[in-house]
Recover the amino acids of this structure.
């Protein structure tokens, strides 16, 4: 959450919910017209551009292997506005402005996220189950390793990514590496160092992959040591 400028066209590997905190954001899907929104849900694999106009915006991702909310399961259609987004926006603003994460704040935000996005589905595909199990035991995602776990060919697993999750294996691998790098940044000093340790071949590889995934640089996203907070939540 924070002030964001206009990003380049990009494609996420996970469903993303957007909530404008100060004024409506501008959104363009797959080369269409710019539209003004108070909130939106963008499915994984959907190419889009986002312009919060330098205002604060909450960008909430659901890990594609284990989505947290019903509306953020793979294969969802775009939503132009989230249900009950005014109450959700109020809670997100409180989180953005609070100095301390409290159980009361956690409960309120969790309740309003569920009201807007629904409870998670218990039904998961074979690929989602295998991904979840694999990533609990390995910090990185490899196609050969996942295919061996599923007892399928690598080409079949690549097909399942596109069919069931709507994105390629490579984009999900990058997503996993970015998530791990952000979590490990305190240990390695900078996000780039952590990303290199996590599997990106060099800083150029990391930077290009980051812009392709998020539409901005890591600096533009505000992900720098000392400039962001990580909270562990139960949802």
């Amino acid at each position: 959450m924070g002030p964001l400028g206009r990003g380049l066209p990009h494609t996420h590997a996970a469903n993303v919910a957007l909530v404008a905190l100060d004024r409506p954001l501008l959104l363009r899907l797959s080369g269409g017209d710019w539209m003004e929104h108070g909130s939106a849900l963008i499915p994984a694999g959907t190419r889009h551009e986002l312009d919060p106009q330098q205002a604060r915006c909450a960008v909430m991702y659901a890990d594609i292997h284990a989505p947290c909310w019903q509306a953020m399961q793979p294969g969802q259609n775009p939503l132009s506005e989230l249900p009950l987004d005014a109450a959700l926006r109020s809670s997100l603003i409180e989180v953005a402005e609070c100095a301390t994460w409290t159980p009361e704040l956690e409960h309120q935000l969790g309740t309003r996220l569920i009201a807007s996005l629904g409870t998670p589905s218990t039904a998961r595909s074979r690929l989602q189950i295998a991904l979840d199990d694999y990533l609990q035991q390995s910090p990185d995602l490899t196609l050969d390793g996942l295919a061996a776990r599923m007892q399928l060919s690598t080409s079949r697993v690549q097909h399942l990514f596109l069919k069931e999750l709507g994105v390629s294996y490579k984009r999900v691998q990058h997503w996993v590496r970015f998530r791990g790098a952000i979590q490990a940044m305190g240990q390695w000093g900078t996000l780039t160092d952590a990303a290199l340790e996590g599997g990106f071949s060099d800083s150029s590889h990391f930077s290009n992959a980051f812009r392709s995934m998020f539409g901005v640089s890591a600096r533009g996203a505000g992900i720098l040591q000392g400039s962001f907070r990580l909270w562990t939540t139960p949802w």
The beta strands are 2-3, 16-20, 25-29, 35-37, 39-42, 48-51, 56-61. The mean pLDDT is 88.
